[in-house]
Structure formats: structure tokens, C-alpha cells
Design goal:
This protein is mainly alpha-helical and 564 residues long. The protein is built from 19 helices and three strands. Helix 7 packs parallel to helix 9 and helix 16 runs antiparallel to helix 17.
């Protein structure tokens, strides 16, 4: 080859080696031999785009001898072939993923919620590549595909969590969305954090830097997108389900026109009574502490026995326990009232009563305890809870019957099949494994019959539940009337308590002056104790012991309002 002008300059400015020094060329007359030129400089070949190389490579300016041509090869050719192969397989992969998502939920709306979020994940990956200045190479494409799978997984878990809260806990759609989003914050963020930290070492690798940045930036943005975008899309796409809830038999709890319209005043009275009882017991506690100090002073003087001091301390401890119990009832009633009416306890009583059609006036006669049967109320509550569980099961069965119209996919292992076999791990036997897809085409009548049967069962349970709720409402009305009567008796009990306190203070003063005897002081303290635990407070406590705040407010029986 001597004398042949092959000292062509390299198209790359940094490469100044003539062609004859870098590649052996064989020349044969009337024979064209094609030999590829391989370049393994990984830092440069994947660090520039084809447009940049084409701009620097002035192909038109090269004066090639006859029979010679230049073609793109090397890593560019490998990357192009890989991208073309990946592009041919990508629709099939996404189609299988979409089919699995549809089969998992049996509904198209949940599937639409999940797959609508996937294109939005490109934003985070694009921002990461722009900030770092890396090109969108083949490895970045692989990272984007991996990111799509991670995002779909997070969205599936969140949507499934929302559906579980609705079916298992009986929550409304909006409440289920909020609760599921709260419970998934920590798992989603921790999973994203571990993946991002695991990809961090690849950021400094010349070959995998684009993939690492794509996954890290895209996953960080996708995690926030999952926790924010999926609930919003779920609330938007499933509007029909939300309207059905608002117009269904459970909607009377939210509108205030059903059982909770009469239970809410009872809860309000429970909270008010707890506040009043705490105030009365607070006054009695001050006097009990004074009596305890006097008893300790008299014990030091040898006037009373240690038993009197122990009794005074027991009275004081009992009053402190009563105050703590009243405070707990007040907190529970405040929460229950907020759940039922959306109004705070400090709202004006006339306005609250007018809004809820307060069924009992101030002139209500006292209701005897014989009209309120706690065993009947407990039985009705248990029956209502049982009907709620059956209703949830019926709704799940109805969803399964409706899902029968969709195609199914199953993985079947047949050890007796005579055909291509797969050897089982640790076993000499073989079995055939096949992926079976089915779609009921000629069973439309059977599917419709199953759906109709499930709907009839659901309607029957709704009617039975409505009757049980009416019975529980009647029990709540009776308890409410008894509570109003006990509330009306509290002022008289307070007056007796004030009178007993004044009598005790007068007797204590006379005792210190030496006029009254220790027996008179003991009788005065006993009268104060009797007034503190008088008939009104005993009736009040007995009534509050029978009434369950959550049941009276319709919270646990009316599943959608269940709280922590």
C-alpha cells in the first residue's frame, strides 16, 4: 500500500492519528473488503449526540477515492440496534402491564387513574437531565422505563389502599382517599429514598450516569406525584361513585336528615353535661381538699382518728377521678359532635338546635329508667354492626360479579400434561406451566343473573339495615330524653351542694371557735359528701354509663363516619 494517499484527517478534532497508523487496510484489485472500525472510548462516544458529531464531521468535504464510503458504526450502531429492538418490544410490554392492571382491579376507572400518572413522571427525569447536562441516551431510556414501573407500582398500592378503606372500614370515598394517602406517605417516601441512595454511586459512572440521574430525579418527583396526583385523579375519575354515595341511604348521616339528626342533640347534651359535671365536681374538690387539710390538722391535735383522715383522702381521690372521667367524656363528645355536624361545641345552642330540629323542649317531663332498655340498645347495635359487615361483603360480591364481564388471566401448572415441560426446583418430576387468558363471550346471561342476584342481596341488606337504624334511633331518642331530665336536675343538685358547703364552712368556723363539737363537724362533712354524690349526679353518671358516645352519634353503626 505504499504510495497510496491514505493520510486522511480524523473527523474528530482531538484525534490526529492518520488512518494508516490506526487500522490495517487490505487492498485487493476488483475486490471490496469491508472491515468495521471499532472505537471503545466510552467517555466520548456516549457523551455526544449524533447531530454534534455530524456537525464536526464534514462528510461532504472529504474527497474519497472511488469505491470507498463512510458508515456510522461502533457504539452508535449498537445503540441504534438496541433502541430499535426496544421500540418494537415496548408496546407489547406496556400492553401486558395494562392488562394486568385491569385484571387486578376489575375496573377501568382505577386503571385510568394509575396510567394517567405515568406520562407525568417524564417531567422529573427531564429536569434532572437538564440540570446535569447529560444527554437522553439509551441508558436514560432504560432508566425511564424502570421509573415507569416503579411509579405504576406505587400508584397500584395507593389505589388498592383507598379501595380497602372503603370496603373494609366502610369509609366514604373522600375519607378513604385522605386516610389512605396519610398511611402511604411514609412507605412511599422511604422506598423512594432507598432507591435514590442506591443509584447515587452510578452518577459518577460515564456509562450509567444518564440512567442514574433519570431514575433519581424522576423517582423523587414521582413520589410526590403519587401522593398528590393519584388522590386527585381518583377523586376526579370516580365522580359517579361519589354521587351514588351522596344520594344513597347512607347520605342522611352527612345531610343531617337521618338518625344522626336526633342523635347529634344527644351528643351535644352529653358534652354539655360533662362540662357542667366537671364544674360541679371541681367546686366539691376544693371543699374536699379543705376538709382533708382540716382533718390532718385535727389528727395532729388528737381530736380525730386516722380513719377520718383516710376517709377525707378517699373522698378527694374519688372526686379527682370523677373530674378526669368527665373530662374524657367531654373530649369524646366534642369529637363525636364535630364528626356528625361539622360544628364545634362552642356553637350557640339555639342555632344548633334549630339546624338539627331539636326534638325535645325544655318542658319535657322526667323519663323513668324503665323506658330505656340498655340490653335492647346493645342488641340493636350488634345487629347493625353485623348488617354493616354483611353489606360490605355484598358490595364486594357485586363488584366481583360485575368484574366477570372482563377478561381473566391465570398461571396454570399441569404435572400430567404431555408436552413442553419445565423441571421443578429440587424435584425430578416435570410439569407444564402455561399462561391462560379467558374471556366469557357466550355467558352474558349467566353474568347478568349473577349481577342481578348480588344487587338484590345488597338491596335486601340495605332495607334490613334501615330498620335496625330506626330501632337504634328510637333507643337514642329515649336516652336523649332521659339525659335532658338529668340535665334539668343538675341545677337543683348544685344548689344542694352550695347549701351543704355553706353549712360545712359554718360548722368548721364554729368548731374552731370551740362552739361546735367534732361530731357536728363530722356530720357536716358527711352532708357535704352526700350532696357531692347526690341523686342527680348518680342518675347522670348512670345514664352516661349506658350511652355510648360513638353509637349515640351514629359513628360506628354508620360506618362512613368511623373514627380512630
Amino acid at each position: 500500500m505504499s504510495g497510496f494517499p491514505c493520510n486522511w484527517p480524523s473527523p474528530f478534532p482531538s484525534w490526529n492519528t492518520p488512518l494508516l497508523q490506526s487500522q490495517r487496510i487490505d487492498w485487493r484489485e476488483r475486490t471490496f473488503v469491508t472491515r468495521p472500525l471499532y472505537a471503545q472510548d466510552r467517555a466520548q462516544a456516549l457523551g455526544v449526540s449524533r447531530a454534534d458529531v455530524a456537525a464536526t464531521l464534514a462528510l461532504d468535504a472529504l474527497d474519497l477515492p472511488p469505491g470507498y464510503r463512510l458508515e456510522w458504526g461502533g457504539e452508535y450502531e449498537s445503540s441504534r440496534d438496541a433502541q430499535q429492538s426496544l421500540g418494537r418490544q415496548m408496546p407489547l410490554a406496556f400492553g401486558i402491564m395494562l392488562l394486568i392492571t385491569v385484571l387486578l382491579f376489575g375496573k377501568l376507572r382505577q386503571t385510568a387513574v394509575i396510567w394517567t400518572v405515568v406520562p407525568m413522571a417524564v417531567t422529573g427525569a427531564a429536569v434532572g437531565l437538564l440540570v446535569t447536562g447529560l444527554p437522553f441516551s439509551f441508558t436514560a431510556l432504560l432508566g425511564l422505563l424502570s421509573l415507569s414501573g416503579m411509579l405504576i407500582k406505587n400508584a397500584i398500592v395507593l389505589v388498592e389502599e383507598i379501595d380497602a378503606y372503603k370496603v373494609e372500614n366502610g369509609l366514604w370515598q373522600s375519607e378513604a382517599i385522605v386516610q389512605a394517602s396519610i398511611t402511604r406517605v411514609r412507605p412511599v417516601m422511604l422506598a423512594a429514598g432507598t432507591t435514590i441512595l442506591g443509584m447515587a454511586p452510578l452518577v459518577f459512572d460515564p456509562f450509567f450516569a444518564s440512567m442514574a440521574v433519570t431514575i433519581m430525579a424522576g423517582l423523587g418527583f414521582a413520589s410526590i406525584l403519587t401522593l398528590v396526583g393519584v388522590p386527585v385523579l381518583y377523586h376526579t375519575y370516580l365522580r359517579a361513585e361519589r354521587r351514588a354515595e351522596e344520594s344513597g341511604p347512607r347520605s342522611n348521616v352527612r345531610r343531617g336528615g337521618g338518625p344522626s339528626a336526633s342523635w347529634a342533640p344527644a351528643v351535644f347534651m352529653l358534652a354539655s353535661a360533662a362540662v357542667e359535671e366537671r364544674r360541679i365536681l371541681g367546686t366539691a374538690l376544693d371543699r374536699a381538699r379543705e376538709a382533708e387539710r382540716v382533718a390532718e390538722a385535727l389528727l395532729a391535735e388528737g381530736v380525730v382518728t386516722p380513719a377520718a383522715v383516710s376517709q377525707a383522702r378517699a373522698d378527694r381521690a374519688e372526686l379527682e377521678g370523677g373530674i378526669q372521667e368527665a373530662r374524657s367524656r367531654e373530649d369524646a363528645a366534642r369529637w363525636a359532635l364535630q364528626q356528625v355536624t361539622g360544628r364545634p361545641l362552642d356553637a350557640a345552642v339555639p342555632e344548633l338546635g334549630e339546624r338539627l330540629r331539636f326534638p325535645v323542649g325544655s318542658g319535657t317531663a322526667e323519663v323513668s329508667w324503665a323506658t330505656f332498655d340498655p340490653e335492647s340498645a346493645t342488641h340493636r347495635r350488634e345487629e347493625l354492626a353485623r348488617l354493616d359487615a354483611q353489606l360490605r361483603a355484598a358490595e364486594a360480591a357485586l363488584g366481583g360479579a360485575r368484574a366477570g364481564r372482563l377478561p381473566t388471566l391465570a398461571l396454570v401448572a399441569d404435572p400430567g400434561f404431555q408436552g413442553p415441560r419445565v423441571r421443578l426446583d429440587g424435584d425430578s418430576r416435570t410439569a407444564s406451566v402455561s399462561l391462560v387468558g379467558s374471556w366469557t363471550v357466550f355467558g352474558g346471561g349467566r353474568i347478568r343473573a349473577g349481577v342481578a342476584e348480588a344487587e338484590a342481596r345488597r338491596t335486601q341488606l340495605l332495607q334490613a339495615r334501615s330498620l335496625a337504624a330506626e330501632g337504634l334511633e328510637l333507643e337514642a331518642r329515649v336516652a336523649h330524653r332521659a339525659l335532658v331530665a338529668a340535665e334539668a336536675a343538675l341545677p337543683a343538685a348544685e344548689a344542694r351542694l352550695v347549701a351543704a358547703g355553706e353549712a360545712y364552712a359554718l360548722t368548721l368556723e364554729r368548731f374552731r371557735e370551740g362552739v361546735a363539737s367534732p361530731f357536728e363537724l363530722t356530720d357536716a362533712r358527711a352532708g357535704l359528701s352526700a350532696a357531692e354524690l347526690g341523686q342527680a349526679l348518680a342518675l347522670h353518671r348512670r345514664l352516661l354509663a349506658w350511652i355510648d358516645f360513638e353509637h349515640a352519634a351514629g359513628l360506628r353503626p354508620m360506618g362512613p363516619l368511623a373514627g380512630p
